[in-house]
Design a protein that fits this description.
By secondary structure, the protein is mainly beta. The chain has 6 helices and 28 strands.
Length: 486
C-alpha cells in the first residue's frame, strides 16, 4: 500500500446532487440510548467474524464526478461504493469493509486531480491514493474524529475542506455539547490543517460548502438543541473559516435540520438549502441571496427532496424525490414544472447532462438525461455491476471485497451480495450478509499502522476503556442524524 506523507488525507469534488436529506433522527433521543449502543458495540468487537446486517434495502443515493478525469464516476450505494472508469459503461464494487464504514452511514466522497479519493466516515477521514484499492484513516489531530462532509472548489480541486462534528459531553444541567472543526488540505491530502478554533460547542454540524467564485467564503449549516426544540443555523465565513457570522434558518414543524444543497457558481451570496424532517413528510427548498442572512421558500415537496442539481451557470435548478419526481425551474423565477415522475434518490448535473439515482421501478438504478430530466437513458442496473474492483493482492479492497477478509472462515462476499441484489448466484443468510458492512468488520489502517510493501494492515478492535467506548458510542450514534447527503 502506498505510504501517506505526513498526517494528511485526500479530497476531491462533490456534486450538488449527492447530499440528501433523509429521515432525521433526534440526537437527543439517541443520546439516551447511547449507553446501550456502546455496550452493543463493545460486545460486537468480541465477535469480529460475524457480519451483522446494516438492515437497509439496496439502493443508489449519490453520484460523484472528478473535476479532472471525465471518465471517473463514483456511485454511493447502501452496500458500498461503485466505481466506473469509463463514464458509466462498466461498474465495479468496493465493499464497505474496505472503505471502513461502520454500519448505517452515507459518506461523502471527493476525487482530487491525481485520483485520490477522500471519504468522510464516522470512524475518521478515510483516504485512498490508488483509486479505491487501498484505504486508510488519517492520523494526527484528525484521528478518530467523526467526519460528516467534504467540499472542494472547482477552481482548486486539490484543496479540500473536511468537516468533523460529534458529541463532546454535557454539563450538570444536561446541556449537550459538540466538537465541530473544519480541516483543509491544499496538497491533495498529504497534510491537513484546522481552519479556525472550531464552532460554538452548542452547535451540531450538518454540512459544509465552499463557493466557486470566492476562495475565502465558507458556509456551514448546523443545529442547536437537536431534539424536539431543534433550531437550524447557517454560519457564514468571509475570511476562510477563521470567524463565522451566525444566522437562523426558520424551520416549520416537524422539520429538524437544514442542509446546504449548493452555492451559485457565479454569485457567492446566493445559496440553496434543503430542510429535513423527523419523519417522511414534506421538505422544502430554500434560497438566500444575501449570504444566509435571510431565506425564502421556493419549493415545497410532497415528500423528502432527496435530489438537487444546479446547472453550471446557475440559471437552472432541479429538485426531486421518491414522491415528487423531478421538477425544474429557472433561477430567475423558480416556477417549477414537472419534468418526470420517476422515483429520485439523487440528482447531479454534469457536462453530458442530468444524472439521477432511481430504482428499477423507473427502469434504471443510474440514468442520464440529455433533455433536462424529461427522459433518461440507462447507465446502470445493479446486476450490471461486474464484481469487486480488480485490485492487487494485499490491498484492502482485494482482501475484504474479493476474499472476504483474513479469517480462516472468510468467504468471497460478492456472490452473496449479488444474490441479495436479485441477480442470482450465492446463498443469502439475512443474518450474516447485508447491503455491506458488518459491525465487526475490519477497518482501514491509520498511517502509523501501515505495513511496508504492497500490503496493508487492518486495525484491530480498540482496547479503549468502557467509558471511552461509551463516549465513542454516543458520538457515533449522534452522527447518524447526518444521513442527509448532498
Amino acid at each position: 500500500m502506498r505510504s501517506f506523507p505526513g498526517l494528511g488525507a485526500p479530497h476531491p469534488k462533490r456534486t450538488h446532487g449527492s447530499r440528501r436529506p433523509l429521515r432525521y433522527v433526534s440526537p437527543v433521543r439517541t443520546a439516551f440510548f447511547a449507553g446501550s449502543f456502546a455496550l452493543v458495540a463493545i460486545a460486537a468487537a468480541a465477535w469480529p467474524s460475524e457480519a451483522r446486517a446494516n438492515g437497509r434495502f439496496p439502493e443508489s443515493n449519490a453520484i460523484f464526478f472528478s473535476q479532472n478525469d471525465p471518465n471517473a464516476v463514483l456511485l454511493r450505494t447502501t452496500f458500498g461504493l461503485i466505481d466506473s472508469r469509463d463514464r458509466g459503461k462498466t461498474w465495479d464494487w468496493v465493499c464497505e469493509r474496505s472503505v471502513g464504514l461502520a454500519g448505517v452511514e452515507d459518506p461523502m466522497y471527493s476525487i482530487t486531480p491525481d485520483g485520490t479519493i477522500v471519504s468522510s466516515t464516522f470512524q475518521g477521514l478515510a483516504v485512498s491514493h490508488d483509486r479505491a484499492c487501498n484505504w486508510a484513516y488519517i492520523g494526527g489531530e484528525l484521528k478518530d474524529l467523526v467526519f460528516i462532509d467534504v467540499a472542494s472548489r472547482p477552481a482548486t480541486p486539490g484543496t479540500v475542506v473536511a468537516f468533523a462534528s460529534s458529541y463532546d459531553g454535557q454539563d450538570d444541567a444536561g446541556a449537550i455539547f459538540f466538537k465541530s472543526t473544519l480541516f483543509e488540505t491544499k496538497d491533495e491530502g498529504k497534510t491537513f490543517t484546522a481552519l479556525g478554533p472550531g464552532l460554538d460547542r452548542t452547535l451540531l454540524g450538518e454540512t459544509v460548502d465552499v463557493t466557486p467564485s470566492d476562495p475565502d467564503r465558507v458556509y456551514v449549516s448546523a443545529v442547536r438543541n437537536p431534539g424536539t426544540q431543534a433550531s437550524a443555523f447557517l454560519l457564514t465565513s468571509k475570511d476562510h473559516g477563521k470567524t463565522f457570522v451566525e444566522n437562523k434558518i426558520a424551520l416549520i414543524e416537524p422539520e429538524r435540520a437544514a442542509f446546504i444543497a449548493a452555492v451559485d457558481p457565479l454569485n457567492a451570496d446566493r445559496l440553496y438549502v434543503r430542510t429535513a424532517n423527523a419523519i417522511d413528510m414534506p421538505s422544502r427548498l430554500l434560497v438566500s441571496d444575501d449570504a444566509g442572512k435571510t431565506f425564502r421558500t421556493v419549493f415545497t415537496g410532497k415528500g423528502s427532496l432527496a435530489g438537487f442539481a444546479l446547472s453550471k451557470d446557475g440559471t437552472k435548478v432541479w429538485v426531486g424525490g421518491p414522491i415528487d419526481g423531478i421538477r425544474q425551474a429557472s433561477t430567475t423565477d423558480f416556477a417549477f414544472v414537472q419534468k418526470s415522475t420517476i422515483e429520485v434518490q439523487c440528482l447531479a448535473f454534469a457536462d453530458d447532462g442530468l444524472w439521477a439515482c432511481s430504482t428499477e421501478k423507473s427502469g434504471f438504478v443510474v440514468g442520464l438525461s440529455k433533455d433536462e430530466g424529461a427522459t433518461f437513458e440507462t447507465k446502470m442496473h445493479f446486476c450490471d455491476i461486474r464484481g469487486p474492483l480488480d485490485c492487487p493482492a494485499g490491498s484492502t479492497t482485494h482482501t475484504e471485497c474479493t476474499l472476504g477478509g483474513t479469517t480462516s472462515m472468510a468467504s468471497p462476499p460478492w456472490p452473496q451480495q449479488r444474490a441479495m441484489l436479485g441477480c442470482g448466484g450465492g446463498d443469502v443468510d439475512a443474518g450474516m450478509i447485508d447491503s455491506g458492512l458488518g459491525d465487526g468488520a475490519a477497518t482501514p489502517a491509520a498511517p502509523d499502522e501501515m505495513e511496508g510493501g504492497g500490503g496493508c494492515s487492518v486495525r484491530a478492535p480498540s482496547s479503549a476503556t468502557p467509558f471511552a467506548a461509551l463516549l465513542a458510542g454516543i458520538g457515533a450514534a449522534i452522527a447518524l442524524v447526518r444521513r442527509r447527503r448532498r
